[in-house]
Amino acid sequence: MTISGSDSAPLDPGARVDMQRFCSTLDRSSSIGAGRPGGLSRLALTDADREMRDVFVAWCREAALEVRVDRVGNIFARREGREPTSAPVLLGSHLDTQANGGRFDGVVGVLGALEVVRRLADLGHTTKRPIEIVSWTNEEGARFSPPMTASGCYAGAYTVDWVHDRRAEDGARFGDELARIGYCGDAPVGGTPDAYLELHIEQGPILSAEGTALGIVSHAYASHGFQVAFTGETAHTGPWPMERRRNALVAAARLMVAVDEIGWDHAGTGGKATAARVSAWPNKAGTLSEWAEVVCDVRHECAVTAGVMAERTRRAIGEAAARSGCDATIVDSWSWGGRIFSDELAELGRLTARRLGYSWRDIPSQAGHDAYFLSRVCPTAMIFTPCRDGVTHNSEELAEPGDLEPGLNLLLHVAAARADR
Length: 421
Ligand SMILES: [Zn+2]
Hints:
Elements: H1 5-8, H2 19-30, H3 47-62, E1 66-69, E2 75-79, E3 89-94, H4 107-122, E4 131-136, H5 149-154, H6 160-164, H7 174-180, E5 195-201, H8 206-210, E6 214-231, H9 248-265, E7 272-281, E8 291-300, H10 303-323, E9 327-338, H11 343-356, E10 360-365, H12 370-374, E11 380-385, H13 401-419
Parallel strand pairs: 3-4, 3-5, 5-11, 6-10
Antiparallel strand pairs: 1-2, 2-4, 6-8, 6-9, 6-11, 7-8
Helix pairs in contact: 2-4, 4-13, 9-10, 11-13
Bound molecules: zinc ion.
Zinc ion binds next to loops.
């Protein structure tokens, strides 16, 4: 293959994404999996997820991208580079949402990557390295726990079989649902990209309050999560003596309150602790519950403090069980965060923001993202855009085109620079 001079020229510094095209693409996404007014409820591996995937794949094929789906349903769409054998630059995020989700969380990263690739095609700019768009399966964990399931599998944290065996609350099995919607692909899971870039709404109030156009994510809050099961015994709520009660629901409640208190104790330094989910069985009036499960997590910018919060949570689990006459088991636990992002890519982001004339700041990420797992595989960076008041995981989530445009242009130039390197 001969490479013409224009082929290897750097991307025109004046290049900008087509916001009209991006917004109409985003609008189409906003019409799939309607939730509360203005929001989405596009849970992973539902019919709405399938519809969104079908539309996304069609867009990728129209853009002459080569689409492949791996065994956990991650969708990759590749734009060939001038050196097809070199490792690709991966751009993406997720298309699934929370039950009361917004239109932007995750979606901006995937459709923004699509706009970048479309724009490069408009400009006739073929990067040296291939660029691949990725949409990760089940980032939210709203239907199947844990979150970031499929990016975790890609990074080697989970096996394919383990992922396929995850169960939703309604009993549905991940692997069966993946096959049902037609996205259990045959591509092997995993890879060694040159870099991973994820554009995402901030999901916090900092950029919007300051009026700063861009966040260059410098590090991630250290987070420790626990899935805790309490076991007690069913009994009648009337005659059964208080001293003999083993109500698992009460143990769960004690833990949930204790976790909240840990959060308040560290609120002054930005710590967060959340009991987000409880389930119980039989969970009926008139009967003490035999089983209850709590999912909770603690987060802090300082890893040492996060560790202290996690230790307090472990103690609270034991105390909640003891005071309620129940047994406690930590069914699953996870940790992430820290200085996981690539300094080199963050610096490229800062320099590019300056060159494009956008205001920017370094910012920590407090939410979990697929990028956390990707950082185990390759140099990784995240770019945050403002979202109104930081409202997210809520149908009121809002990022105006003007909030998103700087992030999209930054992604365009950073992706091109990295892929031409
Ligand atoms: Zn997200």
